[in-house]
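Sharing a chain and its predicted structure for anyone who wants a worked example. Both blocks are below, sequence first, tokens second.
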Amino acid sequence: MLRILGHSTRACDGITRRELLSAGTLAMAGLLPARAEAPAERTFGRAKSVILIDLFGGPSHIDSFDPKPDQPVEVKGEFSTISTALPGVRFTEHLPHLAKRLDRLSLIRSLTHGYNSHNPYAVMTGFAGGNDRENYYSKPSDHPGMGAVCQYLGVGRQKGLPGYVCLPAYPGYSQGLRRAGPYGGYLGARYDPMFSSCDPKWTKEVEGTRDFYDHTLVPMGSPQLPRISGDLTLDALNQRRSLLEQLDRSAEGTVLQKQREQAFELLLSNRARDAFDIEREHPALRDRYGRDLFGSSTLMARRLVEAGCAFVMVHTEARGNGHWDTHNNNFNMLKTWLLPYLDRAVSALIDDLEARGLMDRVLVVVCGDMGRSPKVNAKAGRDHWPQAGFALTFGAGIKRGLVHGATDTRAAYTKDMPVTPGDLAATIYHLLGVDPETTVADHTGRPTHISHGGSPIRGILG
């Protein structure tokens, strides 16, 4: 176990008894017969980059990847099912592209936890012990996001590129709040992601929560590099940087200076500007992903990891029909836009990564903050249900053509091989070459497990 703490934890001779025993074990290993390498050993550090797609609001697992066609209509819902590339495994009828590609994925049907909140906190950190009262809004004492931990540990940092990016904007942007999850938390603001900006457009004016369940509203647009206030040219930006350096010598070596240097580096970097220039892509590929906000964000994520970014997150939040919180109008929202977007963009990402030879070095995880209730409510919606959900995984170090875990006959509770957000986090860390048992010091100096008790999901590693 690697310990990253703010103070020493070793004895005065510098070696703990546990480390001495570990060293002895390693020495003895050379005297023992060779053994077959386990999947976990083969896959450690296989991924060089991660794309985490967060389906904000809680996607209905029973109306997507875990249908229950033998149940009554108030449970199974309105959709029919279709066969997939794996015999005996069925998806909802509105996911035809992903159904054909299931032989390239590992599908987890047993994601479960107790954090009942519209918040990416559990998805992005692996910590599911929070509550709305304490963890709805971001604060400096929060657990850090996985991307922040990776930056803290020096994973994948490259000059001229952000190591950790959140697309298309910070979680909560469409509602004017900062949701907990992606930030550096007690590791410090210097490990926050670079948030792109966006200005989605709709075919008609969107009026706050009144149109929250309007299935005809689709957010269009693309993520952009963070905006510079006013019409500031790059020459003017360089001049401003020089002036700030002259006026603020007192900031040398501070967190503020480091953040400022990183911001200028990115804004003036050709590598960053090129990676964010989605217009460089062929129009046919843009159409394949979709020119909506989230199709464009998914394509942008591919551009960023191809350029060398270590951790990219796509957060699917927008007013209108851009979220997965389907308390009302669940079936129209899903069939008209949400499921077709997911099917198109993620299947395009699978094909694109394979065509570019990136599948062996990029890990992709797709999940939401929770599932939805097994019983349809009086408003043709489904309510919060963190007890059961799904995750799609594919790419570096992930087995192909696998369904991991299962729910009961009503998709209400996990009955086989439960997976927690901490387990997902541990799997991501493992594949990036970070020991999932690593601890870091929290805001009180207490060593805190980066995977929050989770362990790598060995059944999907291969």
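Comments welcome. The chain has two domains: 40-224+276-460, 225-269.
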